[in-house]
TrEMBL record:
<dbReference type="Pfam" id="PF13185">
    <property type="entry name" value="GAF_2"/>
</dbReference>
<dbReference type="InterPro" id="IPR029787">
    <property type="entry name" value="Nucleotide_cyclase"/>
</dbReference>
<dbReference type="Pfam" id="PF00563">
    <property type="entry name" value="EAL"/>
</dbReference>
<feature type="domain" description="PAS">
    <location>
        <begin position="486"/>
        <end position="547"/>
    </location>
</feature>
<protein>
    <submittedName>
        <fullName>Diguanylate cyclase (GGDEF)-like protein/PAS domain S-box-containing protein</fullName>
    </submittedName>
</protein>
<dbReference type="InterPro" id="IPR000014">
    <property type="entry name" value="PAS"/>
</dbReference>
<dbReference type="InterPro" id="IPR029016">
    <property type="entry name" value="GAF-like_dom_sf"/>
</dbReference>
<dbReference type="Pfam" id="PF08447">
    <property type="entry name" value="PAS_3"/>
</dbReference>
<dbReference type="InterPro" id="IPR013655">
    <property type="entry name" value="PAS_fold_3"/>
</dbReference>
<dbReference type="InterPro" id="IPR035965">
    <property type="entry name" value="PAS-like_dom_sf"/>
</dbReference>
<dbReference type="InterPro" id="IPR003018">
    <property type="entry name" value="GAF"/>
</dbReference>
<dbReference type="InterPro" id="IPR001633">
    <property type="entry name" value="EAL_dom"/>
</dbReference>
<feature type="domain" description="GGDEF">
    <location>
        <begin position="652"/>
        <end position="786"/>
    </location>
</feature>
<dbReference type="Pfam" id="PF00990">
    <property type="entry name" value="GGDEF"/>
</dbReference>
<dbReference type="InterPro" id="IPR035919">
    <property type="entry name" value="EAL_sf"/>
</dbReference>
<dbReference type="Pfam" id="PF01590">
    <property type="entry name" value="GAF"/>
</dbReference>
<feature type="domain" description="EAL">
    <location>
        <begin position="795"/>
        <end position="1055"/>
    </location>
</feature>
Length: 1063
């Protein structure tokens, strides 16, 4: 469908011209295709305006030229053979019925190529219809047509800009909407639904689905769009299966070309699938299929971010589930202990266990059996419609547990030939034997049924723990029964337990203390008889004694003093007991309203370890274990509090300092991870001490953040002063493993703003400013500015497009001549890489080369440059003579990065390129930096020797700026040195620079190697170099880097020299 602005512009063009029957606009599309973009009848024409094939082909032929001139064509000269068979008369009669001629006018502009075709009637002003094509059009008509073409070109450019802007806005809207879903969704289903719906609506894709990995199957959890999905998809098939197996995103622009594609929905033309990762483990996929267009990198980018967010959400959900299971386990054990401490009825305790396991963990089938006469007899169960009342010890999983006295865990009962199932459909089982005096006396059994998830390892731990407590309470009940049978006194109960069991008179004094008090608190039982418990209690806990008396049976935490002086945390439960057997030990006032004697029975259990473990868990949830600073979660919660306060007051009074330790990776790699951890701990200690009163957090790696609150709105003076303090504090040397280590710190400051809706917003701003500071060593502290976000988006686009730049044909080489400073004779060319980005234009090397190093693709780029340069120069050699007659062919200089040079097999790579291109090795000069040579002296010498054996010559680039030593230089087979432009720039102004250049030249003559001065821009510099005896040089004084065509022309020139300032 023609865009409305384009159709409007075409209408305006037609209405401005007299005698126009119809108008058509042809433009080039993606991949060089050619198509009719818009058509419109003129005021003088009637009928359809479809374009015959002949006109399309002529328009395409015109666009093939660099600057197509306007031409007037007679309608009678149209070659009807070019029209589609069977449509000749129809096309001519419909399109040209009133037209006597048509005018073709170019529509040309930046990124716009097209042709405006105007069908003209005989009444067009100044029109003289002939029989020949290509005649000049009348000037008035031509001027009006060109004005219309300019309007159309501007409209096309505006449409392109609008499309690009819409795509960017769509991506931002998608990420914002997805982030809200990630941060606000209350459930997994809600999150998946919001994400899939957002992708469906904003990326205009017909099919969106989220699937989670279960074993070797991807199970659909949520979808959006049209059609239906398979609910279970094996990972061995399809694009989603490939992503689930590899953990790598997949972009399939054309599903017909992907062998893994499995058609689920008809009409799909393109697919993107990204993995959802829990750490490094694939847990699901986000799959998008489109019927209306080919998906591309602009779609993959936000979808990859969504995949990362969904994976992190699933990871958080898993961690939360693990924590919740631990919490529920502790809660259940706590409740069971309470039940065991207040009840000595085995049936009641067994019932508490079976129902507690079902209610707390959702186990559907739980049963408890006790052993009687070598037969397991059912005591209680939940969930079974039909059960086996008695089980012999020689049968089934429970029988094996009874025989071995070991916990039995079977995940797949179908593989258990001796399994006894009371009902069909039981799939897995955990059976915990209950022991007394090392003998099996019963079993706690848990089973799953049907499609329920099989019991896992953590289920075994939980059930075994509960079984241990059940075993303890049963044993306690049995002991109590024995005591009641043998003796009439309750004190015998405590002889068989590790808990502290005491009897108290109504006033609280001890009347009986179990022997376990000796091991627990260090006192003999006799020392406490007749004393009050308050004498042992921590002063802060003494008011809880009244609470214990008011709520019998409910456990309360109390701290009791050990004989050694420290305090232990005990969980105390009290129950009132009434018995005639207490009468002899009961004072008259210890009678209830019915004259029945009573006392209190207290049961105390040492929970110090549990309390400490809970405190450690709480601390670990908010702190970094290595540095003991707060962690990212604690920082996020504090930022959320500040943002809420800012919204309430309308005045954000907080800021974030984002710190990154420079050179940490170098230190960590060179001294080892232990040293790196030691440095991080020392760094964190200083940082925390320097920022007392602020919230200091470690975000991960060598990145830290400081949250400063209570700041005057809009005033960053306190933050900037803190940054200055930190610079002074943190740049002082650290002592790591007995050696002094110096680090620098880059800092970014982001003030709180009302538009910050989430902690990630302000941390993103602080991070951007920190990275800007890292790139500018002169300014180690940077305050966030909005334009940094724009620069970050540019950096992100460059980072995403650079790996594909060579494949897309966006990289090219230019060549700067190396000349004889006295004669201008060209001795060689240095190959330099350039990147022409389709949207950003020319991206300077200083911007993308360091990024290539960081992305670890510099080796591939280096190989591309080397092979392209060798192929170009070899082609020049095969096409004719190079340079002046009798002169040596010019050399080709190619830069080699440190990473490329240090990669094993570099010399073999160079040899393969020389063989493929046929370029002579003797003309290839490789430029290697000093720093690359000194990383590994022996390996560097070996690689250089291999290159020299091939015939390749070696030059040391930027000589004098690195860390080389003259003691090592003689070890390398070097053919030349390149003096860095920093020294050349100061020649004639700085005597020190002249002396340094002179020293390099003297060294070169001593080693019998060439010297090339780079960056020569003035005659003064050239003349100074000539006086110092330097022969070769390059720079803008002689020539800027030349395009390939200009380089080839210069290579074939007869003089072999540049015209330049040699007078």
């Amino acid at each position: 469908m023609c865009p409305e602005p384009l159709l409007t512009a075409l209408v305006q063009t037609v209405e401005a011209l007299d005698g126009v029957v119809a108008a058509r606009l042809f433009v080039t599309g993606e991949g060089g295709t050619f198509a009719l973009a818009a058509a419109q009848s003129g005021p003088s024409g009637r009928g359809a305006v479809a374009a015959p094939l002949g006109l399309c082909r002529r328009a395409a032929a015109q666009l093939a030229g660099q600057s197509p001139p306007p031409h007037l064509f007679s309608a009678h000269t149209l070659d009807v053979r070019e029209l589609a068979p069977g449509a000749v008369q129809a096309s001519l009669g419909t399109v040209h019925r009133q037209a006597q001629a048509y005018l073709a006018v170019p529509v040309v502009g930046p990124a716009v190529r097209g042709t405006l075709h105007l069908d003209l009637a005989a009444a067009a002003p100044g029109l003289v219809v002939g029989t020949q094509d290509g005649v000049d059009a009348p000037a008035p008509l031509l001027a009006q047509a060109r004005a219309g073409a300019a309007l159309l070109a501007a409209t096309l450019r505006q449409l392109d800009l609008d499309r690009a802007l819409n795509a960017a806005q769509c991506e931002v809207a998608l990420l914002e909407r997805a982030w809200r879903a990630v941060t606000q969704s209350g459930s997994r289903a809600e999150l998946f639904g919001a994400i899939t719906q957002a992708v469906h609506e904003l990326l205009r894709t017909e099919h969106v689905a989220v699937g989670l990995l279960e074993g070797d199957v991807v199970v659909l959890r949520e979808s959006a769009g049209t059609g239906s999905w398979d609910t279970r998809h094996p990972i061995g098939a399809g694009v989603a299966g490939r992503v689930a197996r590899s953990g790598l995103p997949a972009l399939v622009p054309d599903v017909r070309l992907d062998p893994d594609y499995v058609a689920i929905h008809p009409g799909v033309v393109s697919e993107i699938c990204v993995p959802l990762l829990d750490g490094e483990r694939v847990v699901g996929v986000l799959d998008v299929e489109c019927e209306s267009r080919a998906l591309g990198d602009q779609d993959l980018r936000p979808l990859a971010a969504l995949g990362t967010w969904l994976g992190q959400a699933l990871e958080r959900e898993r961690l939360h589930a693990d924590t919740e299971r631990q919490r529920r386990a502790l809660d259940l054990l706590h409740r069971l202990r309470t039940s065991f401490g207040s009840s000595l009825d085995p049936a009641q305790s067994i019932q508490a266990v079976t129902r507690g396991l079902r209610e707390t963990f959702g186990y559907s089938h739980v049963s408890v059996y006790l052993l009687r006469d070598r037969v397991m007899v059912l005591q209680d169960q939940v969930g079974y419609a039909a059960v086996i009342e008695q089980l012999p010890l020689d049968r089934g999983v429970m029988g094996r547990a009874g025989r071995t006295a070991q916990v039995q865990w079977v995940q797949d009962l179908s593989q258990e030939p001796d399994a006894m199932r009371a009902i069909d459909g039981i799939t897995s089982e955990v059976c915990v034997p209950l022991l007394r005096d090392q003998q099996v006396v019963g079993a706690l059994n848990v089973e799953t049924v049907g499609d329920a998830e099989p019991l896992q390892q953590w289920d075994v731990h939980i059930i075994a723990s509960v079984g241990a407590y059940l075993q303890q309470v049963l044993e306690r009940a049995w002991l109590h029964a024995q005591v009641r049978e043998r003796e009439a006194r309750y004190r015998m109960l405590a002889e068989y337990t590790n808990d502290l069991v005491c009897l108290h008179r109504p006033g609280g004094d001890f009347s009986y203390v179990s022997p376990s008090v000796q091991a627990l608190l260090g006192y003999a039982p006799s020392e406490l008889l007749g004393t009050s418990p308050t004498a042992l209690m921590h002063p802060e806990d003494r008011p809880s004694l009244h609470e214990i008396g008011q709520s019998p049976g409910r456990p309360v935490l109390v701290r009791l003093r050990h004989q050694a002086g420290h305090y232990l945390c005990l969980e105390v439960s009290i129950s009132r007991i009434e018995s005639e057997e207490l009468a002899q030990d009961t004072a008259p006032e210890a009678l209830d309203g019915q004259d029945r004697p009573y006392q209190y029975l207290s049961s105390s259990r040492d929970v110090t370890a549990r309390q400490e473990a809970e405190a450690r868990l709480q601390w670990a949830a908010t702190h970094d274990s290595l540095t003991r600073l707060f962690n990212r979660d604690r920082l996020y919660s504090a930022l959320e509090e500040q943002m809420t306060l800012a919204c309430q007051t309308g005045q954000p009074g907080y800021a974030v300092l984002y710190l990154d330790m420079d050179r940490f990776k170098v230190i960590n790699d060179s001294l080892g991870h232990t040293a790196g951890d030691e440095l991080l701990q020392a760094f964190a200690g200083r940082l925390n001490a320097c920022m007392e009163g602020a919230l200091v957090a470690r975000l991960g790696g060598d990145e830290f953040a400081v949250l400063m609150c209570g700041l005057p709105p809009g005033d960053l003076s306190q933050v900037e002063a803190a940054a200055a303090r930190l610079q002074a504090c943190l740049t002082a040397p650290f002592t790591v493993q007995g050696r002094a280590v110096q680090v620098s710190v880059s800092m970014g400051i982001a003030p709180g703003e009302l538009h910050h809706r989430a902690p990630a917003d302000i941390l993103r701003d602080a991070d951007l400013s920190m990275y800007r500071a890292k790139r500018d060593p002169a300014r180690p502290v940077m305050v966030f500015r909005p334009e940094m976000h724009v620069a970050a988006l540019r950096q992100l686009q460059i980072e995403g497009d650079l790996p594909q730049a060579a494949r897309r044909g966006q990289l090219r080489l230019v060549y700067q001549p190396i000349v004889d400073l006295q004669t201008g004779e060209i001795g060689g060319y240095e190959a330099l890489l350039r990147w022409q980005h389709p949207q950003l234009g020319a991206v300077p090397p200083c911007e993308f080369v360091p990024l290539a190093e960081e992305l670890e693709i510099i080796t591939e780029l280096g190989a591309f440059v080397l092979e392209e340069a060798c192929r170009t120069f070899q082609m020049a050699s095969s096409c004719g003579p190079e340079g002046a007659e009798g002169a040596a062919p010019p050399a080709l200089q190619v830069n080699v990065s440190t990473r490329q040079f240090l990669r094993p097999g570099f010399a073999r790579t160079v040899q393969r390129i020389l063989v493929r291109t046929g370029f002579p090795a003797g003309r290839l000069h490789l430029e290697i930096t000093e720093s690359a040579l000194i990383v590994d002296l022996d390996e560097a010498a070996r690689t250089l020797t291999e290159l020299r054996a091939l015939g390749v010559r070696i030059h040391i680039d930027d000589f004098g700026t690195g860390h080389s030593s003259l003691a090592f230089l003689h070890r390398f087979p070097v053919d030349g040195l390149k003096v860095d432009r920093a020294f050349i720039a100061r020649l004639g102004e700085d005597a020190v620079s002249a002396k340094l250049v002179e020293t390099v030249l003297l060294l070169a003559r001593t080693l019998d190697v060439d010297v090339i001065a780079e960056g020569i821009e003035t005659r003064v510099q050239r003349d100074h170099l000539i006086r110092l005896g330097c022969r070769w040089g390059q720079g803008y004084l002689f020539s800027r880097p030349l395009e390939v065509a200009d380089t080839l022309a210069l290579l074939h020139a007869s003089s072999g020299a540049l015209a330049g300032p040699y007078d």
